[in-house]
Design brief:
alpha+beta; 60s Ribosomal Protein L30, Chain: A; two-stranded antiparallel sheet; 4-stranded mixed β-sheet
Length: about 160
């Protein structure tokens, strides 16, 4: 092999390695998996983002909004419909921020929230999970809401 051929081969190998690193760097990376969420999600440059917020449950026929689980399911179903209408999916959600009202006992119904939440994340249909924050609050603007949720969805351009 000549010196020129070795140089060309080395250049080609370095280019291929650089391309492989660049390609793999263009993925959304989730680490620190817990039962219901990831602790870290890396979003590479160029990702598309979609923010949905201020969402809570719709009233039931009797005018109430249901319990924590019902409201959580209703809210995530609304997010799912909006995402799918725009060509996104629940798997694109990378962040969930929850504002939950403490009940009459002074406690946030975390178990009820998780039962609803687990119907959408870490499932066979959607094995992905977002990072998540839950903040207990005294009240929400809509009387009867027990939970208000914001999401951030991210995907790489197609």
């Amino acid at each position: 092999m000549t010196r020129f051929t070795k140089a060309v081969s080395l250049s080609a190998a370095l280019f291929a390695a650089a391309f492989a690193v660049t390609s793999s760097a263009q993925e959304i990376i989730r680490t620190g998996e817990g039962r219901n969420f990831f602790n870290n999600i890396y979003i590479p440059p160029g990702a598309e983002t979609l923010y949905l917020s201020g969402a809570g449950a719709d009233p039931l026929p009797d005018g109430s909004y249901g319990d924590m689980e019902q409201q959580t399911v209703d809210t995530f179903n609304k997010f799912k419909a909006t995402l799918e209408e725009k060509g996104w999916s629940m798997g694109d959600i990378v962040q969930v921020r929850v504002f939950g009202v403490a009940g009459e006992d002074g406690e946030f119904d975390f178990a009820g929230f998780n039962r609803g939440y687990q119907q959408f994340f870490g499932t066979e249909e959607n094995p992905l999970k977002p990072v998540r924050s839950v903040v207990e609050i005294a009240d929400l603007v809509v009387d009867g809401w027990l939970v208000e949720i914001e999401i951030r969805a991210v995907r790489m351009p197609k």
